[in-house]
Amino acid sequence: MNLFTSLAQTLCFNRIGISEPSRVDGSNLRNTTLKKTLKATCVALGVAIGAVLGLNISAAHAGTVNGVTCNPYRYLYPSDGTAYPNDFATASQTDVSGHLYVCSSTLTHTNAQTILTRVQTIPSGALALLKSRSVYYFYFANRMDNNNYLKGAAPFSGFSQFQTNTARCGKTGYGYSTITKSSVIASSIFDKCSFSVGTTPPNPNIGGVTLHESGHAFDFSIASISPNMAVSPSTSYAFSDVVGNVSGSTQTAASDFYYLDSGKKNHPLPSACQVFDSAAQSALELDLGGPNDLGETVCNGNTENPDFTGMENTSIAYKESFYFLGGGSSNSELFAQLFAKGVGTIGSPDPTPFVDSVIQNGSLPCSRLTVNQYISTQTPPTTAQLQAAYCFIPTAADWDR
Fold first, then answer.
1. C-alpha torsion sign, points 338, 344, 350, 353
2. Is the pLDDT assigned to residue 11 strictly greater than 60?
3. What is the rounded average pLDDT of the residues 215-230?
4. Claim to verify: residue 218 and residue 237 sit in the same structural domain
């Protein structure tokens, strides 16, 4: 793989999964210029990726690769039905027609079945899109096994974005060719997480991580059927504006970040305790934390803790949940978590209780409206829907670029 292809993947894809926060300055909450410049670069380089790789997507590989053995789920558990992603034609060990693989003999049926059932509970329209785009699911013991297997297994071995040095509990990758209009998408769930401090705790919630990674896969699935294949809903100009265009917002057409600091029509400025309440960050969220994460609850009941007194809500979001609420490249993580909250029950323990509380409190109404509309129809919200919610209204073209 040449340098040009690697550069394209670094710019466009190294932020996927509960894994890889891309550190940007806090001004990115209110400034989309850098994002738009990178977007244009990604689109141009996406064409180059297809030309260089000449992608030819084949069936996923089952067997042993680089010391890691992946078996078809149906081969291991033939009584668990045949619905996607367990849609293997037979229960043979060599059948690679399906889309769910279990990649260690130490992994339990219970956890593997959780991945299967959580995917199958995704609403029918969104699930049909994942199936039509042949999204694969892998259950690995850990991040190292993910890397070792997918770097050697076709068709994933042609793309570096299926490997990761920073993913914590899961990883989703997307490779495509604009020449052949082919794509491959795979979500991996790790039985043990890999934290930045060097610890490897058990995955706190296999089902919750599965839904989050499915959010990335869904995002990429829409990109894979778009004209240039490089633009997903979460990376579009439009979603960036719905989340964080402050300078262009008004009280009757407000982005979520504008609303958090200024309120909007029929919705007064929320207090910090209304936005963040007393939710504490999980160990996973702390490990994903931004550079200035204070690692404490914002409020004690209805009383704001002194460390946050006088701070704008968006500034608190940047400090306490940069990975999801940092703007810019963080929008992909926010989209995936909004998807997870929109399609099913995260379950207990919640792996990301802080950001989930912000979502549940109604503090991101326009972002949530957008993702829920994609889940329902696989299309962006209409102008009428955004107007009714007093949300920022992007141009029609900005949903596709």
1. positive
2. no
3. 95
4. no
